[in-house]
Design brief:
The complex is a heterodimer of chains A (209) and B (316). Chain A has 209 residues and is an alpha+beta fold. In chain A, 44% of the residues lie in helices and 13% in strands. Chain A is globular, with a radius of gyration of 18 Å. The chains are: A alpha+beta (209), B alpha+beta (316).
Chain lengths: 209, 316
C-alpha cells in the first residue's frame, strides 16, 4: 500500500511539474500574440473556482487556453481542440460545456468551475474519490473532463433533463447505467475505462439518492 | 484562427445592421460549429457579433397557441422544456439524438438551423470542394460518398445537412423569423429556408447578408404519436446516416421528414398522403428522384426499413 501511495504522489508531482513547464513555455506565446501589431485584444473578467479573475486576451483565445495558459489551471485538458473528445469539459454557470469551442471573451461575468475547483488532493469531491476507488481511468488525460462531466450529469438528471435513452420524455429521468453511458458519450476515454467510470458515477448517484 | 474583432450587439436590428455594413462579419451565439470551422480556417470572419445578450433566449406561447422559440435558446433547454416534451415530442427526441450533452448545453436553435455540412471534403482544405471554394470541384462525387446525400443532389455537391433538430422542425411546419439590416422583419417557412445545392452549394439558406434569425415559431400542437428514429454508426454522439421523423395520427395519417439524405431536411408532402398505405409507398414518393452513389445506395432501403419500424411502433 505504501508503495502505491508513493507512486501516486510521484505521478502527481510529475504531472504538476509537467504542467508548470507547459505554462512557462506558453506564457511568452500569449504575450507575443498580444504584442503583435493589429491583433485585436479585449479585457474580460470572470470567476474561476470562486475567485474573480481579469485578463486581457487576444480575441481568438478559447476559454480552454485562457484557463490553461492565462490562468495556469492545467487540470482542464486539450485533447482534440474541436469539441469531439470532452477532455476540456468545464462547468460554466452551472452547465458543462466544451471549453475549447467557446471564446473566453464571451464569458464576461461568468462563473467557471474546473476540476481544480471541485476538490483538492486533501479534500476530494465525492466524484473524484469514486473515480480513484473504481479506477475510472488509466492514463488520466481525459479524467478531469470525465469528472466535470459526471458531476454535471447527475445535476442534469436531478433537474429532470431527459436524454436520448429516457423511455418516457415526460417522466423524471432515472440515474441508471444506461442513462450515464448515453449522457457521458461526449467524453472519450482512449484507454477504455468506461465501465469503471460508470461504476464511479453509479456509486456517487446512489450516495446522493 | 485568423484575427478578428469582437462586439456584443445591443439589439437584433443593430446586430443585423452591423453585420450588413461590414464585409467579413459573422454572428456568433453558441459558437460550437463556427469556432470549430474557424480553427481550420474554413470560416475566417474578420469581425464577430455576439448575439447572446439580446434576450432571444425565451420560449413563449404565441397568440395562435403555438410556441415561439428564441434564436439562442440552447438545445438542452429546448429539448427539456415541458411544453416540447408534451406537445412537440418529435422536436425533443430529435434534439436529444444529436451531439453530446456538452454541445447541447451551448448550441442554439438558430445555430442548429445554420449548421454546416460534415462532408469530410468540406473539412479538408487540401481537397477540392465547391461549397468551401466555389468552382474547385466536388471530391465526394467519385470519392468517399457513404455518408452523403441521395436526393436533391447536383453535379456540384452531394453534401447533407447534418442537423437532427431541423428534421423535426420540417415535420412540424416551423417558421423562421428574421430581422434584416434595415430593421424589416420576415417569416420564412422552414420548407423554404434551406436551399438545395444546385450550382451554388456555398449558399445554404435564403438568408440575406446581415439578416439575423430572431426566433423559430411552431404552429399549435397537432397531436399524434411522435417518433424520431436515427440510424448511425455508433449508439450515441454521431451524425445520422439517415433519420426518420414521423408524426402518426390514430387514423394512420401523418407526416414524415428525413435527415441524412439531402442538403436540407427532406419532406415531400405528397408522400405524407401515402402514410396509410405503409412505409414502402411513402418511401417510393419521398425518394422518387433519388440519385445515390454506389457507396450510399444503401440509404434507400435503410429509409424504408427505418420508417417501417417507426410506423410499427406508432401502431402499438
Amino acid at each position: 500500500m505504501q508503495k502505491s501511495r508513493d507512486l501516486d504522489v510521484s505521478r502527481r508531482d510529475l504531472m504538476v511539474g509537467g504542467a508548470a513547464a507547459a505554462a512557462v513555455t506558453a506564457a511568452p506565446s500569449v504575450a507575443r500574440a498580444q504584442a503583435a501589431a493589429g491583433v485585436p485584444s479585449l479585457k474580460v473578467a470572470f470567476t474561476v473556482n470562486g475567485r474573480a479573475r481579469e485578463l486581457e486576451l487576444d480575441t481568438r483565445t478559447t476559454l480552454l487556453d485562457a484557463l490553461r495558459e492565462g490562468l495556469h489551471f492545467p487540470g482542464t485538458k486539450k485533447g482534440c481542440d474541436h469539441g469531439q473528445c470532452g477532455a476540456c469539459t468545464v462547468i460554466v454557470d452551472g452547465r458543462r460545456i466544451n471549453s475549447c469551442l467557446t471564446l473566453a471573451v464571451m464569458h464576461q461575468g461568468g462563473s467557471i468551475t474546473t476540476v481544480e475547483g471541485l476538490g483538492t488532493p486533501q479534500d476530494l469531491h465525492p466524484m473524484q474519490a469514486a473515480f480513484v476507488k473504481h479506477d475510472g481511468y488509466q492514463c488520466g488525460y481525459c479524467t478531469p473532463g470525465q469528472i466535470c462531466s459526471a458531476v454535471a450529469v447527475l445535476g442534469e438528471i436531478e433537474a429532470g433533463i431527459p436524454s436520448h435513452v429516457s423511455a418516457d420524455l415526460t417522466a423524471q429521468p432515472q440515474a441508471t447505467a444506461a442513462e450515464f453511458r448515453e449522457r457521458m458519450s461526449g467524453n472519450i476515454c482512449r484507454c477504455g475505462a468506461y465501465s469503471n467510470i460508470v461504476d464511479a458515477i453509479t456509486e456517487v448517484a446512489g450516495r446522493k439518492a | 484562427m485568423k484575427p478578428f474583432t469582437y462586439e456584443r450587439a445591443r439589439s437584433p436590428a443593430e446586430a443585423a445592421a452591423a453585420a450588413a455594413g461590414r464585409p467579413g462579419a459573422k454572428f456568433i451565439a453558441g459558437g460550437t460549429n463556427l469556432l470549430d470551422l474557424m480553427k481550420l480556417q474554413i470560416e475566417a470572419p474578420t469581425h464577430l457579433i455576439d448575439v447572446n445578450g439580446l434576450e432571444l433566449d425565451k420560449i413563449e406561447a404565441t397568440p395562435e397557441d403555438g410556441l415561439r422559440i428564441g434564436a439562442v435558446v440552447r438545445n438542452t433547454d429546448l429539448a427539456a422544456d415541458p411544453r416540447m416534451r408534451r406537445d412537440y415530442a418529435l422536436l425533443s427526441r430529435a434534439l436529444l439524438a444529436g451531439a453530446s450533452g456538452q454541445l447541447r448545453n451551448k448550441a442554439t436553435t438558430a445555430g442548429n438551423l445554420l449548421q454546416r455540412t460534415r462532408c469530410p471534403y468540406f473539412y479538408d482544405p487540401n481537397q477540392p470542394c465547391n461549397k468551401r471554394q466555389p468552382g474547385s470541384g466536388c471530391s465526394a462525387i467519385g470519392g468517399f460518398s457513404r455518408p452523403h446525400a441521395v436526393v436533391g443532389v447536383s453535379d456540384a455537391c452531394i453534401a447533407t445537412h447534418p442537423s437532427d433538430m431541423t428534421v423535426a422542425m420540417r415535420a412540424l411546419d416551423a417558421t423562421v423569423e428574421t430581422v434584416k439590416a434595415d430593421g424589416a422583419t420576415r417569416r420564412i417557412p422552414i420548407a423554404e429556408f434551406h436551399r438545395l445545392p444546385g450550382d451554388t452549394p456555398q449558399r445554404e439558406t435564403v438568408l440575406e447578408t446581415g439578416e439575423l434569425i430572431t426566433a423559430v415559431t411552431l404552429p399549435p400542437p397537432v397531436g399524434g404519436k411522435h417518433l424520431y428514429y436515427k440510424v448511425r454508426d455508433r449508439a450515441s454522439y454521431a451524425f445520422a446516416l439517415i433519420s426518420v421523423g414521423a408524426i402518426v395520427q390514430p387514423d394512420g395519417s401523418g407526416r414524415v421528414a428525413l435527415g441524412g439524405v439531402a442538403h436540407k431536411p427532406w419532406r415531400v408532402e405528397a408522400a405524407d398522403a401515402e402514410l396509410p398505405r405503409g412505409a414502402e409507398a411513402v418511401t417510393a414518393r419521398l425518394l422518387a428522384d433519388a440519385r445515390p452513389t454506389d457507396q450510399n445506395a444503401f440509404k434507400l432501403p435503410l429509409v424504408r426499413r427505418t420508417l417501417a419500424a417507426a410506423l410499427a411502433e406508432a401502431r402499438n
